[in-house]
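[Meeting: bench + compute handoff]

Bench side (C.D.) handed over the final construct sequence. Compute side (W.E.) agreed to return the predicted structure before the next meeting so the bench team could plan truncations. Sequence as handed over:
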Amino acid sequence: MNKRWVSNPKPAKLSASDKTRLEAVVNQFISGSSRLSEIVYRVDIKAGRIYMYRLHEQFGWDKPDVQFIKPLIDGKYAEFPMARIILYDAAGDKCEASWQRHTGQWINLFTGNITECLSFIEKNEYWSQ
């Protein structure tokens, strides 16, 4: 029997200055992208991961008797994770781009640096629809 060890790297621990720098890189990329600037509602960095959120219009938002699990934004939108980038170093040289499946599980689809991951997300944003 052939046994192998598989490594499971942990996300990088980020300082406050790392988070500020990375958030600026991500926001600059998004604002320079006509596609992402239209669909990314919010960016959040926590636990070595960069999360990008989008808004989805909810059916029934105009019916007063409908109850929603989460409060709606602007009365008719719910916020959902669109994609995330896992950072394996604080510089953003080793990253993975992931999408959240309908099951709530994340699936990693691309490995590269932060700019390559952002480009991959931009070109493949249909995964989040």
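W.E. noted at the follow-up: The first helix runs from residue 16 to 32. C.D. will use this when planning the next construct.
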